Amino acid sequence: MRVEIYSDIACPWCYVGKARFERALAAYPQAASVEVVYRPFQLDPAAPQQPLGHREVLAKKYGPQSVAMDERITALGAAEGITFDFDTVLENNSLLAHRLLRFALDTAGSATQARLKGRLMAAHFGEGMDIGDRGQLADAAAAVGLDRDAVVAFLATDELAAEVRADIDEAHELGISAVPTFVFEGQWAVQGGQEASTFLRVLEQVAEQTAQARGEEAAAAGPDATPEGEACADGVCEVPPPSSR
């Protein structure tokens, strides 16, 4: 099973959703057969390259209620073992970090990409990392096993910039307008940082329906036929985001 997760490094709900999904995956008996790929999305494509303090940015958008918003997500994060230190969070354009995640996927595979995603989020939300700083990004990449010199050389170019922008455009074409969005087998979509129990239920349902679709295809083709490619039932598994969102 393939799960594609559309998210932004600068999105706190994406961090919570990542933790909850990984907890569900750890409880899923067939976890070894699940490939998780992170896809780019930018909540603010026009965000400046120079970092600004999170408190200042959020206050301009939401006014006094921004404090309560931060307090709520901080409490939810703590329940998942996540540290949100919004006094140190720096907000700026996330495109460079998305390029690095694509580089990790292309050169080291989805497992390394997932580890890098976690490192970037932990550093961004809890350690005051500037996700637009090439040196800090290279340090994060090295921490998950990527070659630092290769990362520095990559970040000095515009390589994969067009591909990442195309991926973001494709996300919009697919109708994705909020993150995190989890797409299972290219067919079933779940939006929001759902509870781990919800993700576990979706994993089980997708596996069951995919197996059923394959069985029906094999039966229709006859006992000597071998289905080509992956088969999946039509439809979308839509789970409404929590009322707190």
Automatic annotation (TrEMBL):
Q: Which InterPro entries match?
A: DSBA-like_thioredoxin_dom, Thioredoxin-like_sf
> From start to end residue, where is composition biased (Low complexity)?
211-230
Q: Where is this region: Disordered?
A: 211-245
Keyword flag Isomerase: yes
Name all DSBA-like thioredoxin domain ranges.
3-202
Q: Identify a single GO molecular function assigned to this protein.
A: isomerase activity
Listed A to Z, the keywords are: Isomerase
Say yes or no: keyword Isomerase present.
Answer: yes
Q: What is the recorded name of this protein?
A: Predicted dithiol-disulfide isomerase, DsbA family
Q: Which organism is it from?
A: Actinacidiphila rubida
